[in-house]
Design goal:
This protein is α/β, with parallel strands linked by helices and 282 residues long. The strands form three sheets. It has a seven-stranded parallel sheet with strand order 3-4-2-5-6-1-7. Strands 8-9 form a two-stranded antiparallel ribbon. Helix 3 crosses helix 4.
Length: 282
């Protein structure tokens, strides 16, 4: 049984009687809810929930800035609750300074209350240090982990291979989504296929391998609303849970958000599913 199936099965057993209020029709199964969430996040944000996504950029600064912006984008859209960015290629002071430049309102930092928490792994021993972050993930409600940069996460090939398997176990146990930033040439790799080079077996585990883009530009409080208007969509948390922590999100139009309540009789009259699987106004 796959990790996704186990998570759904646990949710059905643990939350069937506890969480009855929903913003989706009662006849929609939990599997369908998860699949809808997965497809929407993947299509809209180019991130595979519950899997590994790899972004390839030109240099350390580009990747670090892109990692922060992607984390804020996903948290703002409520696709994820909180993010942990593990920087492996730079000093923590520099990484935090860049975080303040990207988000002057303090949403990126090393404090527990930050939406995007920044941590460091600077000795090339992330395979050993990975589970040191377990308490941070569990206590802070983090469901998105970003590793930046892959090239500096392991000091030799043996530890890189070790990190691959420990990372997979980490994802299984904590049910988190992982995004990896690398300086590899994206054209050389195919998702799901093991290849030579910087990514190696990581490419075989990745669901998405894509170039770094800079399309998310509004992060500070004074321009955040402009980004939300451009996106025109967001996620609304449902009472149901996949793993006792992370809520299922259903994509809905921001211009007329549906308030979660016990009354869902008119839901089908308000919304219809498009060919792409996104809920749109009729």
């Amino acid at each position: 049984m796959s990790r996704k199936s186990r998570a759904i099965q646990r949710a059905k057993e643990n939350n069937a009687s506890e969480h009855k209020a929903s913003v989706v029709p009662e006849e929609m199964s939990y599997d369908e809810q998860y699949e809808r969430y997965y497809q929407i996040v993947k299509r809209r944000f180019n991130v595979a929930p519950g899997e590994i996504t790899v972004y390839c950029g030109a240099n350390v600064r580009t990747n670090t800035e892109a990692a922060y912006r992607k984390a804020i984008e996903l948290v703002d859209a409520k696709a994820f609750q909180k993010a942990l960015v593990i920087n492996t290629s730079s000093r923590q002071r520099w990484a935090l300074q860049l975080g303040r430049e990207v988000s002057p309102d303090g949403r990126i930092g090393d404090k527990g209350e930050c939406d995007v928490r920044v941590a460091a792994s600077s000795e090339g021993l992330l395979s050993r240090e990975l589970y040191d972050f377990k308490h941070t993930v569990e206590s802070s409600g983090i469901d998105l982990v970003i590793i930046n940069s892959w090239e500096f996460a392991s000091c030799d090939c043996r530890r890189r291979e070790e990190l691959l398997f420990r990372l997979r176990s980490f994802m299984f146990e904590l049910n988190v989504t992982v995004i990896v930033y690398s300086q590899a040439a994206v054209k050389e790799y195919v998702p799901g296929k093991i290849m030579r080079g910087t990514l190696g077996r990581l490419a075989g585990l990745a669901d998405i391998i894509a170039p770094v883009t800079t399309d998310v530009i509004g992060l500070s409080s004074d321009v955040k609303e402009n980004v939300r208007e451009e996106k025109s969509e967001h996620f609304i948390s449902e009472e149901g849970h996949l793993n006792g922590k992370a809520p299922v999100r259903i994509l809905e139009e921001e211009r007329e958000p549906l308030v979660a309540s016990d009354n869902v009789e008119n839901y089908e009259e308000q919304y219809a599913e498009s060919d792409e699987g996104v809920l749109e106004m009729v």
